[in-house]
Design goal:
The chain is of the alpha/beta class. Helix content is about 35%, strand content about 30%.
């Protein structure tokens, strides 16, 4: 689940008595394209709630203007959704909905979806309103929904978190790079668990700002480096070598930039690839085999599959 900047703005300001939610529900494969569409149309970073078990995602914006939803705007969204389908993304069935919501509904809605997550006995990820106590030896990562582009609920993020814990258990994780850091949840978790050198990069300056705020919230900002970097423009030599590289990206970017990604993997290091639909995974695995890496672990959950690779 990723919750957008729209939440953050409302949490910091006095909220209007009512808001209007405009949402598009569609298949998971088209999530990124629909997020971009809604952001462009309303000039508000959307909130996203994904349900992998149903292969469904809901992309929403919340507007202070509650008087109505123009027919012209609905028609424009419909045409854009049809265009997304024509481009080859499996967006259907899609549905556009709008409703008025009370301020109290807004305040409570995230609590229904964002629950504490245990990553083994090493890590507890929870929202700031949760009073759940960590187990002995667990480190706590607090994520405020208004600050989050990733909360660990999504199966691809969850896999990355588990692989960080796995690498630490083997005693071989001193450096870590998070390619496509989003909320910074992976980098922050690594810092909490004692990794010494951590870099998180994202092409979106807003994501980097949010990741930095999450680092401050968890009091590990001095241990982290977050940078705005476009993977497609990083020099082939990369940004250094790391014991663990996580790349939670869309599959075509993973394939096209595989050489830039693997150039960050240090001697004896591991590479975690996520953000991949199950039917796309064989193409990704084959692409990384072509640059000298072999799969050593993988997992499917719903429509998603993630994998861990080492040099062959």
């Amino acid at each position: 689940m990723r919750l957008g900047e729209n939440c953050k703005n409302m949490s910091k300001q006095s909220q209007p008595k009512e808001l209007r939610e405009v949402s598009v529900t569609c298949q998971l494969e088209a999530e990124e394209a629909v997020v971009e569409l809604m952001h462009r149309e309303f000039d508000i970073p959307p909130s996203v709630f994904a349900v992998p078990e149903r292969n469904e995602t809901k992309v929403s914006v919340y507007l202070e203007d509650v008087d109505g939803f123009p027919t012209s705007t609905r028609r424009k969204l419909q045409k854009e959704l049809e265009f997304i389908g024509e481009c080859g993304l499996n967006v259907e069935p899609w549905e556009i909905n709008t409703r008025k919501i009370e301020n109290e509904d807004w305040a409570e809605s995230w609590k229904k979806h964002f629950h504490p997550i245990d990553i083994g006995d090493k890590l507890l990820i929870k929202p700031d309103w949760s009073d759940e106590a960590p187990k002995d030896g667990q480190q706590v990562v607090i994520l405020n929904p208004g600050l989050s582009f990733g909360t660990g609920q999504h199966p691809t993020t969850l896999y990355c978190l588990e692989e960080i814990v796995e690498a630490l258990g083997k005693g071989s994780l001193k450096s870590f790079i998070d390619i496509g850091t989003g909320s910074g949840i992976l980098a922050i978790s690594a810092a909490k668990l004692g990794v010494e050198q951590i870099l998180g990069i994202d092409f979106d300056p807003e994501a980097i700002r949010i990741a930095s705020e999450n680092g401050e919230l968890n009091k590990v900002d001095s241990l982290l480096e977050f940078r705005v970097e476009d993977l497609t423009e990083i020099p082939k030599r990369g940004l250094g070598k790391y014991d663990l590289v996580c790349a939670n990206l869309i599959f075509d970017l993973l394939i096209s930039e595989r050489q830039r990604i693997v150039n960050h993997v240090g001697e004896g290091g591991r590479l975690v690839l996520a953000g991949i639909l199950e039917r796309q995974y064989p193409r990704v695995a084959e692409a990384f085999e072509q640059v000298g890496f072999k799969e050593v672990a993988s997992r499917e959950l719903g429509e998603w599959k993630s994998g861990t690779f080492e040099r062959a």
